């Protein structure tokens, strides 16, 4: 993968909120067809980092490259124009309107006269939802009345319909049952095979370890390290998450600490 | 939703896909009219009273259509009454003092220039409030509460408190009255045209559904619905045409035009009043904006989840700014109707209108929590409010009691609406 050009590269990103450095000098990258798990405790800065990429927050310092070209992302529209789609932990759905309206929110199909083409949007929505969730029939209902899994599929459909090249999934399975979680895992494998790069964000290592090619671990807003999953064990990654300690085979990042404790001690001691 | 019901009423509602909320409001309005009709020995249901009712509703109805968008975005506008006073004053001064100095009295362009100046003033005032709300982050309640005081003061300031009268003779047409009505023939023509448009809309809807292979409504349901709408339009036309000009005005008109007066007096029908047609036109345009345009979609998305709209790439601040700008323009149109009807502008004009406008929108099903509302509902709400007031005057209820009843009705309406929402969301 080293000889390939990264799809997206975030270099030395920093952002502060009221004097607190939520993200401090973090660099991560993502290659085509790759899944990178972004791990860390709640409050480690994962979601903030990813919201910079999706255009929700403006960064204070750093550079973002897409296909090797420096880009500026001021707002969510800029990100979407670059093919960066995000599925937020909260799903970010407008609860009072139907699935099609959410699918096309901000990018509505219009008729020749500049009016909304609701029929075309519903038709497209029926097609894409038919692939993701064939049992889904409630196209006229506001998404408020849908189940968690159905709402999730609307959010996923929104990211996929517009041919995302870079997909960000923030805690994609947090609200789902076991069967739906398995579906999302299948979907991730499928998208990966199509060459889409995926950032998978989670605070739970079990959610992402088996799906990821690499994991980047953050702690207190800093990057502990990035590692290919086949050279580390889950316990070693857990050590990175909890203590910020890198195993010897991982190049320590700015957030890594030197510690004398072994991983086993960390795991048993840290609960 | 898919399974069909055995209950015939339910079956009818399902097949026609009619909005049960709006239907409920029409039923409430019907009961109200029937009740007042009985209580006043039919005086309430005379063409004359219904015609007056429609004219009295116009100004509030125009503003209520904009208030729907404001409330849907989780905001409020308390300044519309004062804004009506301010823009009304500007409209009046423009046509009664500024333009005559340039063009002389009763110039053919005076009325439209005055109206446009008022609308621009309303747009600027609304945009200013919208800017402070959207870009400076001051809550709409505070900004428009400030506006309520500021624009009322501005209305006073324009002429140092002096009442401005009379209005331009062409401009007065916007206020209704015998000369501000379109007459019998035009009323039938307009109604016929509206019915044709309704039928065309149904055919187009059916065509689009077939094109995308969506489930179609049964043909009989289409006929019932379209027939219901057309009957409503034609009924309104018949009522408006059944109200003749007062005989003395008709005689004077006949003398001026050199028409011989037949035996038994000259009967000239009012037909639709111009302010009512303006209100209907505004309601159609606002309904179109709310449901058929991107802007309208964003208004509702912001109301449902502001953060989601922002993350989806919607420029939420710009949308809010525009919503308040539209509200300002509509206040100016309301002001034009109101000053034309009164044939004067006073600095107290529109006092308390903000409350009637908000009440009309809320009674019409607009949720103060945001995200839910219909323009048609707000117009119906305005009609319900006005019917209540006009009916109580006819019945002879004391003024203090009237206000108490309106207040109680408002609270009950919102309570019933809350119950309805709870049930329908289950």
Question: Care to describe what's here?
Answer:
- With 271 residues, chain A is α/β, with parallel strands linked by helices.
- Chain A is 32% helix and 23% strand.
- The longest helix of chain A has 16 residues, at 178-193.
- In chain A, the strands form two sheets. A six-stranded mixed sheet of chain A has the order 6-7-8-3-9-10, with helices on both faces.
- Chain A folds into two domains: 8-83 and 164-270, Rossmann fold, CATH 3.40.50; 98-161, no CATH class.
- The mean pLDDT of chain B is 91.
- By secondary structure, chain B is mainly α.
- In chain B, helix 3 (47-72) packs across helix 14 (353-363) and helix 10 packs across helix 11 (294-304).
- Chain B has one domain (8-181, 273-418): ABC transporter involved in vitamin B12 uptake, BtuC, CATH 1.10.3470.
- Chain B has helices at 8-16, 20-39, 47-72, 80-103, 110-135, 140-158, 184-211, 219-241, 247-257, 274-292, 294-304, 306-311, 316-342, 353-363, 375-395, 399-425.
- Helix content of chain B is 72%, strand content 0%.
- Classes of the chains: A alpha/beta (271), B mainly alpha (426).
- Chain A binds chain B through residues 54-56, 75-77, 80, 86, 88, 90-97, 101, 105-108, 110, 114-116, 119-120, 122-123, 137-138, 140-142, 144-145, and chain B through 1-2, 208-209, 211-214, 288, 291-294, 296-298, 300-305, 307-314, 371-372, 425.
